[in-house]
Amino acid sequence: QVHLVESGGGLVQAGGSLRLSCAASRRTFSSYAMGWFRQAPGKEREIVAAISGSGGSTFYADSVKGRFTISRDNARITVYLQMHSLKPEDTAVYYCAAKRGWGGQQSDTYNYWGQGTQVTVSS
Questions:
Q1: Residues with Cβ < 8 Å from 31, sequence gap 6 or more?
Q2: Which of 117, 116, 96 shows the shortest CA–CA distance to 48?
Q3: Are 55 and 74 in contact (CB under 8 A)?
Q4: What are phi and psi of 77, to 5 degrees?
């Protein structure tokens, strides 16, 4: 079992930055790929970014490439999502998730989920 807790969400103006953190409970954290997903009202949950257990592989949705950076600190069992140049369309609840292995970034491939943190970008 992996328990995940997100933090760092909030209200920011368009063009601003936020950094989300996701703290994990399990010391075998490096065995898990981590993903950040988001869900806006009335829309399906979508992948934002993902990172392999070692941190050597990353994935980004086209909509955030060049603006968001995913990273992890396995010693601190924490994954981060640095977000720059935020847009109103980035407004959503952001979730972190964990799974064994890599490949395939569909939400149903992830086994463990945090409770989510709200990000609101005002225009």
A1: 53, 100
A2: 96
A3: yes
A4: 45, 55
Instruction: Kindly report the number of other CB atoms within 10 A of residue 72's CB atom.
Output: 23
Tokens of residue 69, six digits: 């950076």
**pLDDT digit string (tens) for 23-70?**
999 778 889 999 999 999 999 999 999 999 999 999 999 999 999 999
For residue 42, which amino acid is it? G
The answer to whether the CB of 92 falls within 8 A of the CB of 40 is yes
Question: Residue 103: its pLDDT value, please?
Answer: 77
Segment 74-109, tens digit of pLDDT: 999 999 999 999 999 999 999 999 999 887 889 999
Strands 18-24 and 117-122 come out as: unpaired
Half-sphere exposure of 8 toward its Cβ, with a 13 Å CA cutoff?
Answer: 18
Q: Which of 61, 47, 25 is nearest to 110 (CA)?
A: 47
